[in-house]
Automatic annotation (TrEMBL):
Coiled coil: none annotated. This is Organic hydroperoxide resistance protein. Signal peptide: none annotated. SUPFAM superfamilies: OsmC-like (SSF82784). NCBIfam families: organ_hyd_perox. InterPro entries: KH_dom-like_a/b, OHR, OsmC/Ohr_fam, OsmC/Ohrsf. Belongs to the OsmC/Ohr family.
Amino acid sequence: MKTLYSIGATAKGGRNGQVSSDNGVLDLAVRMPKGLGGANDDYANPEMLFAAGYAACFDSALNLVIKQTKVAAGETSVTAQVGIGQIENGGFALTVALHANIPDVSLEVAQSLIEKAHAVCPYSNATRNNIDVKLTVSND
């Protein structure tokens, strides 16, 4: 693969610390969410950052597929819901539910587009056969 773009980020303090990008654009306090034993849900956490990145990347892939297939669709949106839980070996794993809203197309066309985007999206390709990813669509 020829790398087209690369960026780094540094974490200090793990889930109760700080994350920052190499270019300084991202500089956030992160805290353990309440569901994992933290005090509250008032801070960013790794699952939130993963959900945001996956949603943005998938929406971009979806719009690329729409452009390539020349489908006349309205403005799309993608929501990523990321879950974390303990697995049998004592480690932890993630789940992802991606919901795409693709206005002005039939549900059948929307389903086809989301499946094609799932084949193109770098996050989907990175997680394939490792994270359970559920795809749903609407066309409002």
